[in-house]
Every structure is written in C-alpha cells, then in structure tokens.
Amino acid sequence: MLSKIIDGKKIAKNIIHNIKNKVHNIIKKGHRPPGLAVIWVGKNKSSQLYIQKKQIACNKVGYIFKTWHFQEGTDIFKIIKLIKILNKDKNYDGILIQLPLPKYIEANQIIESIHPKKDVDGFHPYNIGCLVQKIPKLRPCTPKGIITLLEKYNINLKGLNTTVIGASNIVGRPMALELLLSGCTTTITHRFTKNLKEHIKKSDLIVIGIGKPNFLHQKNIKNGTIIIDVGINTLPNEKKIVGDVDFYSVYPKVSYITPVPGGVGPMTVASLLENTLEAYEKKHQYED
Ligand code: GUN
Predict the structure, then answer these.
(1) Which of 15, 34, 100, 167 could form a disulfide with 190 if both were Cys (CB 3.0 to 4.6 A apart)?
(2) Tens digits of per-residue pLDDT, 131-180?
C-alpha cells in the first residue's frame, strides 16, 4: 500500500539539491550567486532558530547570506533606512524581515518598505494583491510550499472542498488564496467561526495552523480527508515538537497527511530559496 504520509523533508531536499546545481552553473558562468538579506529585531528564541535554518540552507546551495540584528526598542525608521539601502544593493535579490516583530513595531510599515521585487516572503501588499488577482509573483513561502507538496503527490485540487483553520497573514490568508487559485472551494475559519465542526466534516482537504496541539481529531473529519498540519508546538516537559493535529487518531481516516516534524516546515525554507532564485533570475532578465 502507498504511504499516506507526505514526505516534505524528502521533497524539500530534492528542491534544494536542484537549486544547488543551478547556483553552481550560475557561478561557473562567472556571475555572482543569488543573495538573501535577513533582518531581525529583538530576541525571540524561535526566530533565532528559523534564521539559523535559513542560513544553513542558503550556505548549502551557495547563496550570499547576511543577517542584520537590531535590539528591541530600535527606532523603526532606522530599520526602514537599512531596508532602503538593501533595496538598491546589487548583492541582494531578497530581503526578509523575520516575524514576529516586537509589539511596538507596525509590521506592515516595515514590509511595505521592502521593494516588491525583493520581497521573497511574498508579504508585500503588491505580491499579495497579485495572488488575489490570479497573477502570482513572489508567493508566501509556507502556502507555496504546501501547494508544491500537493502537486508532487499528484493530488488534483480542482473542485475540492477545503477548509483553512487559522487566518494569519503568514499562513491562513495566503493559503486560502493559493487553494482558490488551484480551483478549490475554500473556507477560511478563525476564532469567531461558529460552526467549525460542520466545515471540517465536509472538507476534502484541511490546512491547519493555529498553534494548538492535538486540536484536530478523527471524530470530526470524514474518511479520505487530506490533512496539512502547519502547527509547530512544543509540549511542556517534552522536547519533541508536535503539530495541531492528533496524528495517530486521524491517521486511519486520512488519504494523505503531513507529519510534524518533516512535513510543511522544510518546504517553507525550500520555497524561500526558490523565491530568492526567482527574484535573482527576474532581475537579470531586466538587466540583460
Ligand atoms: N515567522 C514565521 N514564519 C515566517 C515566515 O515565513 N517569514 C518570516 N519573515 N517570518 C516568519
């Protein structure tokens, strides 16, 4: 029997391997490799870990990678000033501001100061607007990575009833737009949704990212559902991370499921590398 587990780790590894070959060819032709600039503010522990993962992946494929760190309390205009310099810096094709930002900073103000063509997170209103209008440019990494996973497993999305649980700017909202673009009938649910169980029960595919361990159970889903778990939770007194899905309870009923870890997580990084390469290639198209 075919495995129902979607192996994000393996697919991400393949993507990274292919990018590494492309960068090798770029360098062989005498060009500079793609470059990613990462800015972070404060000392959020998870952010440090995520940046480390991005750095390891960039080093692996041969990208230029540099981080800029600001202490919590830094004036927002100082950060925007750096972004404006990086917008013009020919060594960097992508600029990423690690989220979450400390509360005193208005994230949108920062994100909007990134040039849309260097916005490899795909969070700039221009890039989100392009996704809304069915002309995707740079696409948010986690939802893009999820679509890649579903494509690699030859899952036909046209006409599926899908529910996205969680309406964040990073995952839920752009995920719903991606599913819509792929021909799904999509519902976004959030903390004010009244009849969540009803939405879940009629779903062919569920994407969940709310940060609540074991939130989704087998008794709520129908047979054959595809489940994509974006949750990353650390249980108290346990070192391992778990998703938002009660994996072992839903497993007998699902047709496909992403594990945590090793499902969506590695794809976010792989998509970031893809977006950085895309920004690099587009820039060179204009310049040639
Ligand atoms: N924090 C959690 N996920 C992300 C992401 O995809 N991009 C950025 N910039 N910050 C994040």
Answers:
(1) 167
(2) 999 999 999 999 999 999 999 999 999 999 999 999 999 999 999 999 99
pTM given for the model = 0.97
Reported as a single tens digit per residue, the pLDDT across 58-80 is: 999 999 999 999 999 999 999 99
What residues flank ligand 1, with Cβ below 6 Å? Answer: 96-99, 121, 141-142, 170, 268
CATH code for position 238: 3.40.50.720
Tell me if residue 98 is catalytic: yes
Is the same domain home to 111 and 156?
no
Is position 18 within any domain?
no
Q: Which of 93, 119, 121, 244 is catalytic?
A: 121
Query: Tens digit of pLDDT for each residue in 188-220?
Result: 999 999 999 999 999 999 999 999 999 999 988
Verify cis geometry, omega within 30 degrees of 0, for the bond prior to 261.
Answer: yes
How many Å lie between the centroid of ligand 1 and the Cα of residue 188?
Answer: 20
Task: Select from 98, 116, 135 the last residue of a domain.
Answer: 135
Q: Both 112 and 170 in a single domain?
A: no
The answer for residues whose C-beta is within 8 angstroms of residue 270's C-beta and 6 or more apart is 11, 12, 15, 16, 57, 145, 148
> Which of 135, 169, 193 is the C-terminal boundary of a domain?
135
In a domain, 288, yes or no: no
Instruction: Please identify, by atom number, the ligand 1 atom nearest to the C-alpha of residue 96.
Output: 9
Beta-carbon contacts of residue 200 (< 8 Å; ≥ 6 apart): 163, 165, 206, 216, 220, 221
| Mean pLDDT of the 20-49 span | 97
Residue for token pair 């559902």: 225
Alpha-carbon dihedral angle through residues 208, 214, 219, 225, given to the nearest 10 degrees: 30
Tally the domains of the chain. Answer: 2
Q: Tell me the residue range of the domain where 105 lies.
A: 32-135
